[in-house]
DNA sequence: AACGGAACCAACCGCTGTTCA
DNA sequence: GTGAACAGCGGTTGGTTCCGT
């Protein structure tokens, strides 16, 4: 023998709540508490299903609910928590005081999700979307329609980039602008350097996993690698970081990343090429050094990344955060305790906070 | 001013795990 | 132990508002 039926479906009101109904529900709960949702509407004199009453109370009438726009900190927390918890809105809401799961869900679907898509980030996996990038766009425009043998060779040379989203974005920004003259020659030279830099980046991530402190490195290359890993270089897709920021002043994520990216400010995108090549060269030195270190530390893998990927971090970034004591970029990731950590450049005056208490997700890991 | 599409959000629906008779 | 109701959750819907033409 089970329980008695919950409520008759017939005769119960549906749809938007009136102020009078709200008043009755609030007054009843203030006096008697929530109690049994099944019996509550009858006792409160409401022609509503108990489920509807519970929803109205938890999502709208509760006195501790915070209304109004989401703050920057809340938005960042939502993105980070979503990257870890997925669509577990109630779990996310539990870590954002005053916000309901329904509100967070709506905000995600109407604001954050679209913004991530615009930035070329998959809102489900929080990884860069390679499907929206086209290798043929890396050729000069006419070549996409009438490719010569040389163009096809170039395309073939670019193929390895498909495995490296950061560099693919960077190349897609730089290469189409360089069709003639010295700039074109520079960008042709850039390709192998980009690949080397990416390899060095991966080697650095491996080192970080092995808890090895790297030797002093040229700061420009360090910043370049950190910036590219921390921010997935969203601002380099169609515009320079400064241009991107100007176009989306409300894009806090981009702003945070911009604070970390300390590339020289050039008017022409192609002017970045020599600096980037120098950075790649420095990174290559790191790669050579790290290959010797990693070969001697293969048995020391702490697996700090735990497969977690966030919109603004890569495994390399998460690993770097754990290995380096001098973090100068905005990075997100998990430390060895499973705590979510957000750190940022002090000079930028942005985030420099440890959210382990607020974002305690250890029970969901 | 009128219209249509986009954006927003409160509320509902249906499912699942838990509780209880 | 069983099965039905409960409570809670995530996905979806539909009404309202906003905005551009």
Automatic annotation (TrEMBL):
SUPFAM superfamilies: Homeodomain-like (SSF46689). GO terms for molecular function: DNA binding. Residues 9-65, 66-116 form the HTH myb-type domain. Keywords: DNA-binding, Nucleus, Repeat, Transcription, Transcription regulation. It holds the Pfam family Myb_DNA-binding. Residues 291-309 have a biased composition (Low complexity). Coiled coil: none annotated. Residues 9-61, 62-112 form the Myb-like domain. Residues 291-330 are annotated as: Disordered. PROSITE patterns: HTH_MYB, MYB_LIKE. Its main location: nucleus. CDD domains: SANT (cd00167). It comes from the Eukaryota. GO terms for cellular component: nucleus. It is found in: Nucleus. This is Uncharacterized protein.
């Amino acid at each position: 023998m089970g329980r008695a039926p919950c409520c008759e479906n017939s005769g119960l009101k549906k749809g938007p709540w009136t102020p009078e109904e709200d008043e009755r529900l609030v007054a009843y709960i203030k006096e008697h508490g929530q109690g049994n949702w099944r019996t509550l509407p009858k006792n409160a004199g409401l022609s509503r299903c108990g489920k509807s009453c519970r929803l109205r109370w938890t999502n709208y009438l509760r006195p501790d609910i915070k209304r109004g726009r989401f703050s920057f900190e809340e938005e960042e927390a939502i993105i980070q928590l979503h990257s870890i918890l997925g669509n577990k809105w109630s779990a996310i809401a539990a870590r954002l005081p005053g916000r309901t799961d329904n509100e967070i869900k709506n905000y995600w679907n109407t604001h954050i999700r679209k913004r991530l898509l615009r930035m070329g980030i998959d809102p489900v996996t929080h990884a860069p979307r390679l499907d929206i990038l086209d290798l043929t766009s890396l050729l000069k425009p006419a070549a996409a329609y009438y490719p010569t043998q040389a163009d096809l060779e170039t395309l073939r040379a670019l193929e390895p980039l498909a495995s490296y989203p950061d560099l693919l974005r960077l190349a897609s920004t730089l290469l189409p602008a360089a069709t003639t003259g010295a700039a074109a020659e520079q960008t042709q030279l850039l390709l192998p350097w980009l690949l080397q830099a990416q390899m060095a980046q991966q080697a650095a991530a491996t080192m970080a996993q092995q808890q090895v402190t790297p030797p002093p490195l040229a700061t420009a290359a360090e910043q370049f690698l950190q910036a590219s890993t921390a921010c997935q270089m969203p601002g380099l897709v169609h515009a320079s970081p400064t241009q991107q920021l100007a176009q989306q002043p409300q894009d806090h994520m981009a702003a945070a990343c911009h604070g970390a990216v300390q590339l020289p400010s050039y008017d022409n995108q192609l002017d970045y090429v020599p600096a980037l090549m120098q950075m790649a060269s420095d990174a290559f030195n790191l790669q050579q050094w790290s290959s010797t270190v990693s070969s001697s530390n293969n048995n020391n893998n702490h697996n700090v990344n735990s497969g977690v990927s966030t919109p603004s971090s890569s495994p390399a970034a998460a690993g770097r955060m754990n290995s380096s004591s001098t973090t100068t970029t905005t990075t997100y990731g998990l430390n060895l305790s499973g705590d979510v950590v957000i750190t940022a450049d002090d000079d930028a005056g942005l985030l420099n906070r440890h959210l382990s208490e607020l974002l305690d997700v250890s029970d969901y890991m």
